[in-house]
Amino acid sequence: MSLSQELPKIFISMPHECGYLQDKIATTIFVDPKANISNAVYSLLALQGFRRSGNLVYRPHCEGCDACVPVRIPVAEFHPTRSQRRVWQRNQDLAIRELSAEYTDEHFSLYRRYQRSRHAGSSMDTDDPDRYRDFLFGSIADTRMIEMRAPAAGSGKGKLLCVAVIDVLDDGLSAVYTYFEPDETRRALGIFSVLYEVEMAKTLDLAHAYLGYYIAESAKMNYKINYQPLQAFKNGNWLWLKKD
User: Number of C-alpha atoms within 13 angstroms, CB side, residue 200?
Assistant: First the structure.
């Protein structure tokens, strides 16, 4: 299968307010929403820097701005920092299991707490379960949910601390979204989730962990540079992106 043979029609959005950088106007290219996209085709699109929200496959395409840079970790070459190794060890007591991509009230309750803490007042800060489903789930990808819980007391389940939504692509794992208990700051669950995805990719014999878009000017998106070595999709090629 080649990208030129299988790629559906691509459209471009009208200019809209940028969701990442203040006072910026953005445009997005996106795959025909009516197209029947398989996981194999989506895997090819991911190689070209595309992401998904639900079944909408998109990539920023802004005139005069290239701040949004698709990035991925080549997992065989990844070397965690001392700080990242400490986070890994700190969370070895978690009970972790892989689930199918399905809605639960417990997951949604954690998602709401996370959004109220991290993105209060944004379009993601909503009480609507349907918008949650439309954002995270879809039919185009092989999607898994990685559930992380605190150690259980007795025979019951431990407290739900983190949920990582991951797509399994032909050449790697794609981190769709991760949300976690905002009060558990010491665990650094966002960092641990990335490290877990790297290890999961190795276990599945996949080459990459796709982290979405790195934006140097965005405090919420520039943390990805801390995972080295890192590759960035620029000018049609995956190139090394070093931390200054």
Answer: 24
